[in-house]
Amino acid sequence: MDCKNLAAQLPGKVFLPPSPQYTETDSSYFAAFENELSPACVVRPANAADVSAIVKIVGSSSWHATPLAIKGGGHTPWAGAANIDNGVTIDLRHLTGVHVNSQTGLATLGAGERWTIVYEQLGAQGLAVAGGRVSKVGVAGLITGGGLSYFSATSGFVCDNVVNYEIVLASGDIVQANARTNQDLFLALKGGSNNFGIVTRFDLPTFKQGQMWGGAIYYNPSVYPQLVQAFSDFTATSTPDEQAHILIATSWSAGAETGVSNIYHASPVAAPPSLKPFTAIQPQIFTSLRQDSLLGFADEQSAFSTDGARQLYFTTSFRLDVQFMLHVRELWLDALKPLQSVPGFMLSLVFQPLTKGMLAKSAQLGGNSLGLSPEDGPLVVTLLNSVHTNAADDNKIVTAVLGLIRAIEAAAARQGNAARYRFTNYGHKDQKILEGYGKQSIARLQAVSRKYDPRGFFQQMVPGGFKLSNVLEGSAVE
């Protein structure tokens, strides 16, 4: 077993059960499904050289017997995404650091960081980066999946802002990928997940950022049609406010439905005109609207979930259409009826916009691997977030929510609202996510995988994430 080889060559960095370090890593995931897996050992590299050593050791041995998992923040909820039974889990928690180059303004982020530390350290300097909206989320998974930020209107996807990746390849080589060096790998890493290696560092431009304004508004469900109309008007306007960011939701919890809008503005000006349609909707149950820091708003988003719960994400997308969004809510209400007796059951339906302007910014920044163009917008990224208490109900919940996804997608196809793109960061393991990138993007990604990982190490021996090798020929959507 490679745990012995790893321990011999990386003393003090390999941990077996029941050591405190092993237990700490194995119980530190966002969702219970990951916490319930048991790797043979946990390795905590201190730097890229250690990651390289791990890959070389495993790759040079009888590596067909030793699968790997790679844990950044551990926020992807499904079992096996970043942990593994009887394999080696590489915990990147010590690959930290937030450093700003005073000459270039670039921030260097260790792959083991979370947005909490990034925003805390940059905020102390009056700076920010286009990063995650939830502070406890890890840097690595969010960026390699694409990611959205509070600044997406001006910055596109989070991955669009990365100017350099440091990555350990299957050979163990540590290389840089940017617009001048390994350009094909650079583009592939912008949304290509963990198919090409282990990213150990991200470089992103900083910008000045002070206090912001925003928060959550909770509504009586009777006003949901008004909420959807406000969302549509915001998303489709020809004169967008590029400092504003929104998402809306309806949530079922404790036997009741509640509507929610999360609205944000990069300036501290209260209730700017672009967000007044949301603040004007009545009746409201509660609001948290205020001036706050980027970290403060990201912490608020973190508080909406509890680490270690039986919680899952599922996703789809469709073209912006008010009546269809209202129909999706009806499908959601029908789907949750037989689940209401499940202990601890909650199910949120969340809509987030991909505007034409945002997709244009993404293209202007050099593009990515997501297969989107401005003409594809406006789109509605849809998140279904389920929570329940007991493992005995896992299959029931997954089956029901995947069934709801299929119903939404079938209705979208019938009504001319279908879209192929699926937001990787919200994907469930039983969904076809990469297929939604389109045939051209998938072909480029597969070519990059063959070039930089000719043995298919990261396809075969790192089963977590959405793998290019699982995209069947002809299954990518045109």
Characterise this structure.
The chain has 478 residues and is of the alpha+beta class. Helices cover 31% and strands 22% of the residues. It contains 16 helices and 19 strands. It has helices spanning 2-9, 20-26, 32-35, 48-60, 115-123, 139-145, 152-155, 183-189, 224-236, 276-279, 294-302, 322-336, 356-364, 394-414, 439-452, 457-460, and strands spanning 14-15, 41-43, 68-71, 88-91, 98-100, 106-110, 127-128, 164-168, 174-178, 198-205, 207-208, 212-219, 244-253, 256-265, 284-287, 290-292, 310-319, 346-354, 379-388. The strands form 4 sheets. Strands 12, 13, 14, 15, 16, 17, 18 and 19 form an 8-stranded antiparallel sheet that branches. The protein has a 5-stranded antiparallel sheet with strand order 5-6-10-8-9. Strands 1-2-4-3 form a 4-stranded mixed sheet, with helices on both faces. Helix 5 runs antiparallel to helix 11 (294-302) and helix 12 runs antiparallel to helix 14 (394-414). The radius of gyration is 22 Å and the shape is globular. It starts with a helix and ends in an 18-residue tail after the last helix.
